[in-house]
């Protein structure tokens, strides 16, 4: 239940003080008109689910000879409050990160208040917004495994419409995402009475496309070069003429088996001008085949492909790995076959002393 704080501001002719839940008038000549000039300020500490709040203020006041005799008057005042959020998310989008297990969540945040406001979030710099200003905040997040969320019981799912099931699923996904962001706001003011702080939620601002981009792909690919993981712009160093081991591990997080699959490794050089050279037959050679076959992988199990290749010249090389689904049962999304980028830097072999 939301908490309301009431503060009474007196008129210039008289004032009231609050004591023991009653309002005692200290000026015996004050009238009901004086009381009606009092202004009531209301602060909402917990944002409610409903956009409006209604309350009834009950006043008990007394003064003069009537107060001595124990007489008092009562007055009720109805209050209607429209509650609005302190920050608005006008647009939510995503951008890919260097790691296939992460992405950037982009939030366009609007400050509707009349005060300067600070917004903070996990893994992001604080954002300072002036009144009626909108800025973008980028938050790097780990992708979410929605498959691990608890499912509705069969009886509830049986009596729910497809739209209701989709809404409940999106709500559960939004709650999981929001719990990892830790978005908080605070109003900056030198006056203590104006300082406010709270939490912001993105649950209602996430559309289906954003949820798909934030979802951890059910097929997870790990690539190791010479035993070291290659992800997040990691450069693997090697020597010209030395065998470089390549290991690709597939983990199936899906509830259904996948496969058989075929994995093809194609080395290339990027000239950083839009040109990529795949004609490297004289610069790179494979020990064995550059195509690997992956049998059916059951849920929560893994499959590993191992191979090796030789770099015959120095330079920066990249490995483009393509996966093809050889199963004719169903067509899986392309996002499930996104492998980490592999960057290999081949260097000259150091000369031996006395050679």
Automatic annotation (TrEMBL):
Residue ranges constituting the Trs120/TRAPPC9 third Ig-like domain according to the UniProt record: 96-212
Pfam assignment, any one: Ig_TRAPPC9-Trs120_4th
Residue span, Trs120/TRAPPC9 fourth Ig-like domain: 236-327
GO cellular component: trans-Golgi network
Domain of life: Eukaryota
Matching PANTHER family: TRAFFICKING PROTEIN PARTICLE COMPLEX SUBUNIT 9
Protein name: Trafficking protein particle complex subunit 9-like
